[in-house]
Structures are given as structure tokens and as C-alpha cells.
From TrEMBL:
The keyword Phosphoprotein applies. It is found in: Cytoplasm. It catalyses: a 2'-deoxyribonucleoside 5'-diphosphate + ATP = a 2'-deoxyribonucleoside 5'-triphosphate + ADP; a ribonucleoside 5'-diphosphate + ATP = a ribonucleoside 5'-triphosphate + ADP. Major role in the synthesis of nucleoside triphosphates other than ATP. The ATP gamma phosphate is transferred to the NDP beta phosphate via a ping-pong mechanism, using a phosphorylated active-site intermediate. Its EC number is 2.7.4.6. It comes from Halobellus limi. This is Nucleoside diphosphate kinase. ATP binds at residues 12, 60, 88, 94, 105, 115. The lineage of its organism: Archaea, Methanobacteriati, Methanobacteriota, Stenosarchaea group, Halobacteria. One of its GO terms (molecular function) is nucleoside diphosphate kinase activity. One of its GO terms (cellular component) is cytoplasm. HAMAP family: NDP_kinase. It comes from the Archaea.
Length: 154
């Protein structure tokens, strides 16, 4: 399994406002994933429409766009073995109410429309690469070794 799979993760405006950036970053760092990109930014209308394009016809789409553009987000790229699937399992279910304790949404959320974090869907082939390309330029993704790399993989 490739140890350099990359996935896109974003602390949503509610997570930023609630002071959860550090806690969320810590979880991925402690798991052994490698941070290769990070950007504190505000999403504009065009980017929101592109990022959530698959949901354009859903009844919650306008509220979702309004919410995701309502304040700063912290966008990140994390790298590691099976990163997309591993991160999703740490994030929990889409609805925090259905998310197990121990997951990010299960520990920090209660409401479907305020679920703290976005992560690329491992069941949507190529979503990780598409979302990384949408939010980051290639030169914003850094190539380096974690000092504990030899202790993270056999
Ligand atoms: P995710 O990949 O787990 O984030 O879930 P989806 O891709 O299905 O949906 C994208 C985002 O839209 C979710 O994270 C929620 O913030 C929001 N969302 C999804 N379904 C609903 C819904 O039924 N109602 C509302 N209000 N928001 C929803
Ligand atoms: Mg999704």
C-alpha cells in the first residue's frame, strides 16, 4: 500500500469558530499522518459551488454554500498509507448524531448542518486528488520526511 496517498481535509467555519483547529490537527499528527499543506482562508461563492457541485440539486445546497462561505476555514492536505479512507474513519459519519464517540464528528458535533469538518470521500474515486487540486497549487504542497517515519511503517 502506498505510503504517500494524499487526502484533502478542511475544518469548517463552525470548527474554526469553536476553537477546534488545534485539536483536529493533533489527531491527524498523532495518528502518524504527515501534514503536507495548510491554508487558512475564506471560501468564495464560486469555490463553494465547485467544491460541493455534486450536491447542487439537493434541498440543503443553498444553506450549505451559505454556511461554508460564512467564515474562515482551515484547509489541509494529509499524507500517509490509505490516507483518504483512514481520515474518513476518524471523521465519522456525515451526521454527527450517527457518528461513534472517538470520531471527530462524534466527539464535537450534534447537527448534520454543523458537522465541523470536511474530508475527501474514499468511496468517490479520485475525490482526494480533485479536491487537493481545487484548493492548492502544487508548490504549496511540501515534500519532507517526518523524523519518526521509520517508526510509523514496518
Ligand atoms: P460528507 O462527505 O460526510 O461531508 O457528506 P456529503 O458529501 O453527503 O454532504 C456534504 C455536506 O453537506 C455534509 O458534510 C453536511 O454539512 C451537508 N449535508 C449533507 N446532507 C445534509 C442534509 O440532509 N441536510 C443538511 N442541512 N446538510 C446536509
Ligand atoms: Mg462528501
Amino acid at each position: 500500500m502506498s505510503e504517500d496517498e494524499r487526502t484533502f481535509v478542511m475544518v469548517k467555519p463552525d470548527g474554526v469558530q469553536r476553537g477546534l483547529i488545534g485539536e483536529i490537527v493533533s489527531r491527524f499528527e498523532e495518528r502518524g499522518l504527515k501534514l503536507v499543506g495548510g491554508k487558512f482562508m475564506q471560501i468564495d461563492d464560486d469555490l463553494a459551488h465547485e467544491h460541493y457541485g455534486e450536491h447542487e440539486d439537493k434541498p440543503f445546497f443553498d444553506d450549505l454554500v451559505e454556511f461554508i462561505t460564512s467564515g474562515p476555514v482551515f484547509a489541509m492536505v494529509w499524507e500517509g498509507a490509505d490516507a483518504t479512507r483512514q481520515v474518513r474513519s476518524m471523521v465519522g459519519e456525515t451526521d454527527p448524531a450517527e457518528s461513534a464517540p472517538g470520531t471527530i464528528r462524534g466527539d464535537f458535533g450534534l447537527d448534520l448542518g454543523r458537522n465541523v469538518i470536511h474530508a475527501s470521500d474514499h468511496e468517490d474515486e479520485g475525490a482526494n486528488e480533485r479536491e487537493i487540486d481545487l484548493f492548492f497549487d502544487e508548490e504549496e504542497l511540501l515534500d519532507y520526511e517526518r523524523i519518526d517515519a521509520a517508526w510509523l511503517y514496518e
